[in-house]
Amino acid sequence: MDDLLTGAADVTQAVKIHDEVSNLLKMAGFELQKWSSNSEEFLETIKENTDNKNQFEIKFDKVIKTLGLFWDRVDDKFKFSITLPDDKKFTKRSVLAEVARLFDPFGWLAPTIVKAKIFIQKLWLCTSGWDEPLPTHLKEEWLHFRGQLPQLQKVELNRWIFIDSKVDRVELHGFADASTAAYAAVIYIKVVRKDEVKVSILESKTKVAPLKQISVPRLELCAAVLVAKLLSEAANILKIPKQNIFAYTDSMVVLAWIEGQPLKWQTFVANRVTEIQNRLDNDRWNHVISDDNPADLASRGIEPKELKNKNIWWNGPKWLIENNALPKEKKRISETNLEKRIQHTKTFHVEKEKSVWEGYSTLIKTVRVLTYCRRFLKLKEKKTVRKELPNYLTSEEMKETLNKYIKTEQEEHFEEEIKDIKEKGKIKKRSKLLALYPYLDTEGLLRVGGRIQAADVPVDYKHPIIIPKDTHLAMLLIKDAHSKLLHGGMALTMNYLKSRYWIIGLKPLIKKHYRECVICVRHRGATVQPQMGDLPRVRISPGRPFHASGVDFAGPIQMRVSKGRGHKAFKGYICLFVCMKTRAIHLEAVSDLTSQGFIAAFRRFVSRRGHCADLYSDNGLNFVGAAKELTLMLNHSMTGVLKEIAEMISNDGTTWHFIPPKAPNFGGLWEAGIKAVKTHLIKTIGNSTLTFEEMSTLLCQIEACLNSRPIGNLTDHPNDMVSLTPAHFLVGEPLITIPEKHNTDEFISPLNRWRMLQKMLKHFWNRWSKEFLHTLQQRHKWQSKSIPPQVGDIVIIKDEDLPPTKWLLARIKELHTGPDGEIRVATLKCKNSTLKRPLSKLICLPREQ
To answer: Which contiguous run of DSSP H or E holds residue 6?
Structure first.
């Protein structure tokens, strides 16, 4: 923008402003041109002071265009010029272009412009295109409005709003109004100078109502927001104090909204009330009748020819000209339910106060407590002598108490049925007890009538007492019967209860109690037995014998140092190494179960069978200790430890694999080997005691027998070859067989002998793959899958070391998968310790517990 609009009270002040502004902008390279004023004296003065070198243009024209308006500098008034093209084809595009020509930055022509805005809104609802002719009814409406637009050229407004240094008071008055078509706001400035009052329109603004239907009170509130914005901005620019600002609306509902707290109203109203209250104080708002509200013209719209003569629009209502005059207020609405926020009532779960008998968990305790209470009441009412009552509760007293308890429950749940029986002798057909044909006995108890009155059975069995469903009494009776029957099954409990009571919905209640009984749940828990898992890769991959081995101990067995009298026997053990691939067995006699004893046996084993890369075992303390010592020796093998230890582990370390604790089924391969060794040992020596040398010799013979057993299927066909045995992989033939004749005269070169051995070894592995590997396919046990437990489940640990009556409860903390990917082992949180157990050692409790 390159125009400067300003003013002054006299010529001297105006010249001073001219000089200061010109010099200030000239320093930045900006020079003002085309000066004009309503004072001829001012124009002549600046013309005389102007340097001839600078070509200043002094505007002496009567009418000057500024900001889209026309200013008559002689009369000092604003005027409007309406020029419309001679277009006979009216479309959406042409109408929109003509409306845009109605430039009205301050909203002085708002009552007329709003009709054009409303017409444009109608065009949006029209289905015709941008360049298509308008429908007939819209075209006629637009031509009627367009023909009156030149009448706006007669509108003239004073530029000066009568503010100078001599004024006594300056006020701002804003009016708001809305209709179903639009809402508007207009503000006036009131200047008071002694007894003279001048009121001028300052600014207005209109907006059409949205196409979405909105209530008129909401539109009135939107108009109030508009007037609040206009008043706050104008007061800020003109430096008018807030006590001189007044706002008016003809909506009592809007006044009630503004005076209330925003939290009371719904979101739409609350947001706009908050904005209004942030801009204007509540005491600035007043009510005005519709006839005195100039914004009513702008919200409904008027014809262009009528605008010039609407004095209420240009000068406000008549009472505004009066000094210190405000409109007569009507009684305001103190409260309105319109747009009031729905109050969400907070309700809290309030439990019904429990009766005395609902505070006890067993029937016998409930009856005894109630009996003592009834005895106390009898002593108080009848003043019975205490000595007349026994020191214990009699069966008659307890039976009477139980009947009273049952009667109370029946009166609460079967009130209608009891009333019908007393008055009519029968119950209604819609009653749920109709099939039982109930009646009242001499004590007032509701019993089953039934059809077996002639049966030779006790009265309680023929006419059981009816017990309401889902009551504390029903659960007490079921719990008492279940306990008396030593936690018997559902059928036994049901049969026992039906001999005296007819409990509505008995079977589901017994099931519920059976599921909640801790003892029954413990005994009902099923042991988790996973399906037999897939074999690990080390079992089904070819490789050197004993490269991957399993180890286990057997014993104790009695051994002597030497023969003869006086030599006591001592405990010895058998250390078994089994090849994970060929099932070959290596046996060592061991004098004790210490880590040092096992390391010595392990040295002898690797010295004869070669390096063992992977060793599998259970969690025996000697194995764990040996694994730690071997790891420690491996870590210090190059730091100058003993020579024989360094030489033992200089080749490679041994990776030790432990199966889960207390899971012997994970080590089935060496467990089967131990069983076979014990079978031969018991049948050979019986109860005899051998020396260490004799035991070592016998173990070597047993080892030879076991390594000569076939690992594949045997057939009777004469053309079949010798069955494959573990010894074929160790020495090339069974260790126990008929000796064959050797041709010592035939010479075989070392190279040919090596090739022959490699061929034999390859042949054995081919037979291993064809004859033995397929025998591992079948799952001989643990064939069905069980539902795996989840983290957080409660389980019972099966531990042989615990007495039979002890239970060890734990919660599953983590689950671990085996080599086959199935869940096999669980980490348990038990009391203050953490355990690790296979699933086959756990009894899973029902999850609803």
So the answer is: none
Rounded to an integer, what distance in angstroms lies between the CA atom of residue 66 and that of residue 86? 25
The count of other CB atoms within 10 Å of the CB of residue 613 is 16
Helix axes 110-125, 136-148, angle to 10 degrees: 160
What mean pLDDT comes out for the span 721-747?
60
Question: Using CA atoms, how far apart are residues 113 and 106, in angstroms rounded to an integer?
Answer: 12
Tens-place pLDDT, residues 801-832: 676 656 677 878 788 776 666 677 788 877 77
Q: Torsion-angle region of residue 431: left (phi > 0), alpha (psi -120 to 50) or beta?
A: beta
CA distances from 635 to 8, 630, 652 (A): 100, 9, 11
Alpha-carbon distance 751 to 740, whole Å?
24
Query: What are the pLDDT digits (tens) for 472-511?
Result: 888 988 889 888 888 888 888 888 888 888 888 888 888 8
471 close to 413: Cβ distance less than 8 angstroms: yes
The whole model's pTM is what? 0.43
Tens digit of pLDDT for each residue in 37-68? Answer: 777 777 777 777 665 444 445 554 555 665 55
* CB within 8 Å of 396: residues ≥ 6 apart: none
Please give the residue that has the higher pLDDT: either 595 or 307. Answer: 307
CA 341 to chain centre: 29
Helix (H) or strand (E) holding 348: none
Residue 103, amino acid: F
- Tokens 């308006």 belong to 69
| DSSP 8-state assignment for residue 290 | G
- Which phi and psi (to 5°) does residue 510 adopt? -65, -40
Spatial CB neighbours of 296, under 8 Å, sequence gap ≥ 6:
177, 250, 290
Find the helix packing angle between 216-238 and 267-279, rounded to 10°. Answer: 20
Tell me what pLDDT residue 221 has.
92
* Alpha carbons 542 and 766: distance in angstroms, whole number: 10
CB 206 within 8 A of CB 299: yes
Find all residues with CB under 8 Å of 540, minimum gap 6, and list them: 773, 776
